[in-house]
Amino acid sequence: MLLYAPATAAHIPNEHIDVSMVAQPVPDDALEMFLESAAQNGATNLSRAQPFDLNGSTGIFITYDLKPSTGVALHEQDMLVNHGGTTYEIVLNTAQPDFAVQAPALQRVLSMWRWTG
């Protein structure tokens, strides 16, 4: 699932929330290590992993900065949650100056989340 955000002060046209299923389920005790692997792809300023609840399923999230080779520096919130034998990844992708404006949209999506299976 991909949800695009409206344009903001940074005028980044592809700020979005994406939800995907991880190719192989990640055991609960390995979720933090999976998220921290973002550093291997250039992420910096990784936050400490924090727990969250998504409609009764517990997961963890981190935030980090990412500087693409071209373009505006990004700030992302990356979340993992296991449900029904599948690991879901939910990512808020924003420009650094837009994170505070876009984060409430992610919270609205999460507050309305309902598992169907």
Please tell me about this protein's structure:
The chain is α+β, with helices and mostly antiparallel strands and 117 residues long. It has one domain (2-6, 13-111): 3-Layer(aba) Sandwich (Protein Transport Mog1p, Chain A). The chain is built from 2 helices and 6 strands, in the order ββαββββα. The chain has helices spanning 31-36, 99-111, and strands spanning 2-4, 16-21, 50-54, 57-66, 74-83, 86-95. It has a 6-stranded antiparallel beta sheet with strand order 1-2-6-5-4-3. The longest helix is centred in the last third of the chain and has 13 residues, at 99-111. It is globular. The two termini are 16 Å apart. The relative contact order is 0.23. The mean pLDDT is 89.
List keywords for this structure.
117 residues; alpha+beta; Protein Transport Mog1p, Chain A; 2 helices; 6 strands; globular
CATH superfamily: Mog1/PsbP, alpha/beta/alpha sandwich
The shape, in one word, is globular
Strand-residue fraction? 35-45%
Low-confidence stretches: none
First and last CA, distance = 16 Å
Helix content: 10-25%
Strand element count: 6
Question: With helices defined by DSSP (H or I, 4 residues minimum), what is the helix count?
Answer: 2
The tally of domains stands at 1
Strand order of the largest sheet: 1-2-6-5-4-3
In CATH, the topology is named Protein Transport Mog1p, Chain A
Indicate the structural class. alpha+beta
Largest sheet composition: 6 strands, antiparallel
